[in-house]
Structures are given as C-alpha cells and as structure tokens.
Amino acid sequence: MQGQDGERDRCAARDGGEPPAGAAEPEPRRGRPRSAAAERAILDAVIALLEAGEPLAGLSIERIARTAGVGKATIYRRWSGKEELFVDVVRDMEPTDPPVSGTAGLADLRVMLESMRTRGLAQRSSVLLVNIFAQMKSHPKLWQEYSGTVIAPRRVAMLEAVRRAVAAGELRDDLDVELIDDLFVGPMLVRTVHRPDAPLPDDLVDRVIAALLGGLAPVRV
C-alpha cells in the first residue's frame, strides 16, 4: 500500500503540479484555483527576494521555488526560464495597460500615451522597479525578452493607432507614420526615462498632443 500511495503522490505532482501530502507548499486561499495561487506565490517570491537585496543575476529557479513553496516543475510549466519569469514580475508590478477601442485614432493614442505617463509615475515611486530596470539593462538576454514581449507590442499598437488617425483625417497623410509615432512618444520617453526629475503633470499628454497637432494636423481649407 505504501508503494501505491507513493506512486499516486508522484502522479499527482506530475499531472497537476500539486505536492504530495505533507509537503511545504502552502494551501491557496479558499475558492481560488490552485494554479493561480501557485503563480501568485512564485511572483511574490521573486519580489520578496529582490526586496531583500538579491540581485536578478543571483536568483536561481531552485531558490525561487523554495521561497514560493513550490516545486521547480511548477515554475517550468509556466515559464521556460528566468527571463520570462522576471518579465512577468515587472508586468505584475507595473500599472496594467488600459484597454483601447481598437477603432479610434487620436483617442486611442491618447490612452496609450497616458499609460506611459502613469508607468513613469509608478517607476518613480518604486525603488524596487528602478533597481530592476537598471539591472535588466545590464543583462542583454533579459532586456531582449522584455523588449520583445512588452515594448514591441506596445509600439505596434501605437503605430496602428497613428494609422487609424491618418485614415480618419486627424493627422496628415503625407508624413511617415513611424516618424509621427516617434514625435508623440519621444516627449513621454524623455520625461519618464531620461529625465527622472521632470514633472509628469496630469495634463501632460493633452499638452503634448496639442503642441504636435499644430504641425501634424491636416490643413483645413
């Protein structure tokens, strides 16, 4: 019977990611799916280790699993490696990207620019986020993962919004779309990344758009 019980425990751990009876993994809160509880525990474990002063480069899957109270297999079922996991940790700490209509032009662009402003405010208020981004930039593989899975899709969404604005007659159609996008995004990047002491007032996005439309809006005859 003992051998059968052991085999059942091994199968359960392999198939569902649940530890055998008596293992150290904490029970999730009542009513919450175990997979969601495990994922939350893993993200919280990385954050806790970073808050304790552990560098990104020094974190191993074994250490993260032990801190989270899960097995390494539970982590690898969700992330292929540390880079993907760390990117999701940053996503978890940043403000969630707001939804856009997908049909509007300038209105959607404004929503995305405002999201850049709020992310900038969040990074300024979090010493941990500032530290994480500084470390990420010194690890090319990690920065490439973040750039490819987070920054690149945001840029694509903005370019699509610019194209919709051009098609709707909100922006001139004789200019390069990527140049227009850079003109809108540039001031936000300068203020949120390159000038950490620059103010980020509530009306910043509206002021940027108003200033640029003086040269980007079609001439009305």
Question: Any descriptors?
Answer:
single chain; 67% helix; mainly alpha; transcription cis-regulatory region binding; disordered N terminus; elongated; Tetracycline Repressor, domain 2; Arc Repressor Mutant, subunit A; 2 domains
- Please report the first level of CATH classification, the CATH class of the largest domain: Mainly Alpha
What spatial form do the alpha-carbon principal axes imply? elongated
Can you give the helix content as a percent range? 55-70%
Order of helices and strands: HHHHHHHHHH
Integer count of domains? 2
**Main sheet attributes: strand count, strand direction, barrel closure:** none
Q: Would you give the CATH topology of the largest domain?
A: Tetracycline Repressor, domain 2
pLDDT below 50 for ≥5 consecutive residues: which ranges?
1-33
Strand content: under 5%
Summed up, the helix count is 10
Gyration radius, in Å = 23 Å
CATH H level of the largest domain: which superfamily? Answer: Tetracycline Repressor, domain 2
Structural class by helix and strand composition: mainly alpha
How many β-strands, per DSSP? 0
What is the residue-averaged pLDDT? 85
